[in-house]
C-alpha cells in the first residue's frame, strides 16, 4: 500500500516487484542482529565479563522462559523463541530511531503467525502421530469438529492482528500527534519545533517502548503455549 499510513515503496526490482520500507527495515534489523551476534561471539572467554555477561544472561533467560512455559522436554525450541522475541523487540523499537516498524505491516505479522501455525500442527502430528493428532479435533464430541477447525484457523489471524493492530495503532496516533503539533507551531508562528520535541516523548515511551516490548513478549508466549498444547 502506498500513501497514507501504509509502508512506502523504496525501490522496484526488475519485473516491477516493489520493495517497501517494511522489507528494507527488516533487512537492516537482520544485518544489525547478525553483525552484533558475530562480533560478541568471536572472543568468548571461559570466565565471562563485560558484554559477554549480558549476552549469557539473555540466553539463559530465554532458555529458562522456554523451559518454564513449554516444559524441559521442549527446550529445543529456545533458539527459535529467542530469535522471534529479539527480532520483534528490535522491530517494534525501531520506531524510536525514526524507522517504520516492520511489524506495522500486516504482511510481516501474518508471516510470523503462519510460521507459528505450521509449527503447531507439524509438531503436534510429529509427537502424537497424524491419526492421533487429527482425532483431537473430534474432542470433546464429534459434533464439535467444525468449531475446532474454525478455532485453529483463527489462531494465525488473532496472533497477527493483535501484534499488527497494537503497533500500527501507536504509529498512527504518533503521526497524527506530530501533524497536530506542527500545525500548532505554525499557527503560533514558532519556527523551532519545540512542541514536537517535548510533548510526544511520554507517548513514545508507551507506544514504542512499553507496548513494543509487551507485544513481543505476548506473541512469543502465545507461540510457546500453542505449540506446547498441540504436543501434550
Automatic annotation (TrEMBL):
It holds the Pfam family ATP-synt_A. GO terms for molecular function: proton-transporting ATP synthase activity, rotational mechanism. PROSITE patterns: ATPASE_A (PS00449). It comes from the Bacteria. One of its GO terms (biological process) is proton motive force-driven plasma membrane ATP synthesis. The keyword Ion transport applies. SUPFAM superfamilies: F1F0 ATP synthase subunit A. It is found in: Cell membrane; Membrane. Coiled coil: none annotated. The keyword Transport applies. InterPro entries: ATP_syn_F0_a_bact/chloroplast (IPR045082), ATP_synth_F0_asu (IPR000568), ATP_synth_F0_asu_AS (IPR023011), F0_ATP_A_sf (IPR035908). GO terms for cellular component: plasma membrane; proton-transporting ATP synthase complex. It is a multi-pass membrane protein. The chain crosses the membrane at residues 23-41, 77-97, 109-125, 163-181, 213-231. Keywords: ATP synthesis, Cell membrane, CF(0), Hydrogen ion transport, Ion transport, Membrane, Transmembrane, Transmembrane helix, Transport. Key component of the proton channel; it plays a direct role in the translocation of protons across the membrane. Belongs to the ATPase A chain family. This is ATP synthase subunit a. It comes from Crassaminicella thermophila. The lineage of its organism: Bacteria, Bacillati, Bacillota, Clostridia, Eubacteriales. The gene is atpB.
Amino acid at each position: 500500500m502506498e500513501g497514507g499510513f501504509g509502508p512506502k515503496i523504496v525501490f522496484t526490482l526488475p519485473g516491477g516487484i516493489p520493495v517497501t520500507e517494511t522489507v528494507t527495515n527488516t533487512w537492516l534489523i537482520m544485518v544489525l542482529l547478525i553483525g552484533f551476534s558475530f562480533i560478541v561471539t568471536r572472543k568468548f572467554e571461559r570466565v565471562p565479563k563485560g558484554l559477554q555477561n549480558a549476552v549469557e544472561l539473555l540466553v539463559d533467560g530465554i532458555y529458562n522462559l522456554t523451559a518454564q512455559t513449554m516444559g524441559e522436554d521442549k527446550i529445543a525450541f529456545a533458539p527459535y523463541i529467542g530469535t522471534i522475541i529479539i527480532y520483534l523487540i528490535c522491530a517494534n523499537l525501531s520506531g524510536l530511531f525514526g524507522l517504520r516498524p516492520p511489524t506495522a505491516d500486516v504482511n510481516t505479522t501474518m508471516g510470523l503467525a503462519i510460521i507459528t501455525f505450521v509449527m503447531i500442527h507439524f509438531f503436534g502430528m510429529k509427537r502424537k502421530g497424524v491419526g492421533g493428532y487429527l482425532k483431537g479435533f473430534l474432542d470433546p464430541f464429534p459434533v464439535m469438529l467444525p468449531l475446532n477447525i474454525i478455532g485453529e484457523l483463527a489462531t494465525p489471524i488473532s496472533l497477527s492482528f493483535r501484534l499488527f493492530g497494537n503497533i500500527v495503532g501507536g504509529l498512527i496516533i504518533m503521526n497524527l500527534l506530530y501533524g497536530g503539533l506542527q500545525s500548532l507551531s505554525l499557527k503560533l508562528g514558532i519556527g523551532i519545533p519545540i512542541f514536537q520535541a517535548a510533548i510526544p516523548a511520554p507517548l513514545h515511551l508507551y507506544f514504542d517502548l512499553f507496548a513494543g516490548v509487551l507485544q513481543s513478549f505476548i506473541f512469543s508466549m502465545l507461540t510457546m503455549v500453542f505449540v506446547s498444547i498441540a504436543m501434550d
